[in-house]
Amino acid sequence: MKLVFAIINSDDSGSVSRSLTKNGFSSTRLATTGGFLMAKNVTLMVGVDEEKVSDVIEIIKEHCHSRKQLISTSTGVGREFPTGMPVEVNVGGATIFVVDVDQFQRV
Ligand code: 2BA
């Protein structure tokens, strides 16, 4: 079994969750915050058999869009950038980690 962690934009999270459910996948949503932008995002946890991981990733890809976001460097975000200059970063579609699961039990 594998555990898929997908960090996604909050605006995409509803359609991803609905599509996962519709396709028979169980998922858990965590309210998270990106370390760089300090903006809220959503992390989905999906426990799934190995042969279904690609199906889960396809659903995530289908519903997650990349966005350009302007950040103000005067807020202290991104210290490597010259201060006072707005900087554009490309966020998403999704950041996905797939990890091995040693045990899965419902008790
Ligand atoms: P944030 O950490 O808030 O990062 C938002 C976006 O800012 C990133 O988009 C990237 O384009 C840019 N960025 C992040 N760190 C940067 C840096 N040190 N210098 C310049 N630009 C930087 P994404 O790569 O699409 O990441 C979206 C969110 O996914 C991240 O939000 C974070 O919550 C998560 N994430 C991305 N990579 C990760 C990783 N290796 N480990 C854990 N979480 C990660």
What small molecules does this complex bind? ligand 2BA
Give the strand tally.
6
The quaternary organization reads as single chain
What's the gyration radius in Å?
16 Å
Biggest sheet statistics: 4 strands, antiparallel
- Helical percentage: 10-25%
- Approximate shape: elongated
| Mean pLDDT across every amino acid position | 92
Describe this protein's structure.
- This protein has 107 residues and is an alpha+beta fold.
- Helices cover 22% and strands 37% of the residues.
- The chain contains two helices and six strands; from the N terminus they run E-H-E-E-H-E-E-E.
- The chain has helices at 10-22, 53-63; strands at residues 2-9, 28-33, 40-48, 67-71, 87-91, 94-100.
- A four-stranded antiparallel β-sheet has the order 2-3-1-6. Strands 4-5 form a two-stranded antiparallel ribbon.
- Strand 2 (28-33) and strand 3 (40-48) form a beta hairpin.
- The longest helix is centred in the N-terminal third of the chain and has 13 residues, at 10-22.
- The radius of gyration is 16 Å and the shape is elongated.
- The mean pLDDT is 92.
- Bound molecules: ligand 2BA.
- Residues 7, 34-37, 39, 41, 78, 89-92, 95 line the site of ligand 2BA.
- Ligand 2BA is lined by residues 7, 34-37, 39, 41, 78, 89-92, 95.
Reconstruct the topology from this structure.
Blueprint lengths: L1 E8 H13 L5 E6 L6 E9 L4 H11 L3 E5 L15 E5 L2 E7 L7
Antiparallel strand pairs: 1-3, 1-6, 2-3, 4-5
Helix pairs in contact: 1-2
Condensed summary:
This protein has 107 residues and is an alpha+beta fold. The chain has 2 helices and 6 strands; from the N terminus they run βαββαβββ. It is elongated, with a radius of gyration of 16 Å.
